[in-house]
Amino acid sequence: MSKERHVIVGGGLAGAKAAEALRAEGHEGEIVLIGAEDELPYERPPLSKDYLRGESSRDDARVHPEGFYEEQEIELRIATSVTAIDPGAREVELDGGERLGWDRLLLATGSEPRRLPLPGADLDGVHHLRDLGDSDAISARLEPGARLVVVGAGWIGSEVAASARQKGAEVEVVERAPRPLEHVLGAEASDFYAAVHREHGVVLRTGAALERFEGTGRVEGVLLGDGTRIDCDAVVVGVGIVPRTGLAEEAGLEVENGVVTDERLATSAEGVFACGDVANAHHPFYGRRLRVEHWANALHQPEVAARAMLGKEASYDRVPYFFSDQYDVGMEYAGYATEWDRIAFRGDPGGGEFIAFWLRDGRVVAGMNVNVWDVTDPIQELIRSRKRVDADRLVDPGVPLERLLERSDG
Ligand SMILES: Cc1cc2nc3c(=O)[nH]c(=O)nc-3n(C[C@H](O)[C@H](O)[C@H](O)COP(=O)(O)OP(=O)(O)OC[C@H]3O[C@@H](n4cnc5c(N)ncnc54)[C@H](O)[C@@H]3O)c2cc1C
User: Which atom number of ligand 1 is nearest to the Cα of residue 81?
Assistant: First the structure.
């Protein structure tokens, strides 16, 4: 019976699910879960949605109820940072100087917001959104009539803009690209989101370059490259994230756009694994490495990491999946599309309920269902099949998605 000690660095969703999975997979030795935040592990999606709007509580966001860790004999050390990992000595160093030995180590350090190196970025009232405290601070600014500038119309920027409008704030979004979310969705599908935000009263300034944040002590406005000044009471910067790879880099692990792992989520150092936002993992279905910075990946990868840590058969090959909620528009996206030759719509985006398919050589590489539910499984099957589909049937809402593979011609 194994009485080994397994240490998890990072008390977010991935870390907490890994601790749970180690027990569920039969590990009987010690599990130490170390998290820098002074919070029980929690999920982040509500931070730009219901929690930000004051519609759900801190407790609602918890990964597990408080008693879970004790019941499962998981030693949870919060408000504790790991300052170094030593794969040779099989030890981690904690911020108080304590050194803790391990038999297997899991890095679940997640990611942090990218910062803009622009004048005024340190002014009070310029926010980023990653943790509960950030969400509280932004929430306090969302009074009716408050003027909010959101920099970056990616998922987080778009969700913050929506929540802020729902709270009655005046919102201007500054985005460098021609459309919100264009780098993920392409022009046609991102036009849908641009229209939704405009209908809800957001001023969208696309193709706009931010030059500086202005104000004395507190932010009072932002200046764009074309000389436009937007007065505001607060700014939320949502321009992407960077994986927290510092510990891994300093320890000499292979790091490239995240901590590099194989499909078992094993890193280049013996006994060290990585999962969640920080892992750039070889994906057997795509035959390449993917770093997925979404909730479902942080939810599911830990089980595979735990199995691998226990020496069991393990391979992570789920089709990437994420969701977003903005106003009354709920969506799910499955797949991974960097190149496509066509986007096909089943249903009319103008009507607010549709599925968009990204096609390459007649094959579905990604699908996004908007206010249409229970279609993720067949969409993922289409992607996994790699079969050519009949485009007319694909866009015909009368043909169940499950039937499309029956007449495909490979
Ligand atoms: C506001 C917001 C909204 C989101 N909404 C969605 C959504 O709608 N749909 C979706 O699919 N995804 C969403 N995401 C993304 C999703 O939340 C992330 O993919 C997920 O949180 C990743 O989990 P993780 O555990 O890998 O990393 P994290 O959640 O970043 O957790 C890592 C933890 O490790 C800790 N840590 C780091 N370094 C150390 C150290 N040295 N010592 C100790 N602890 C350390 C950090 O403090 C942190 O608590 C959202 C993210 C944010 C920020």
Answer: 42
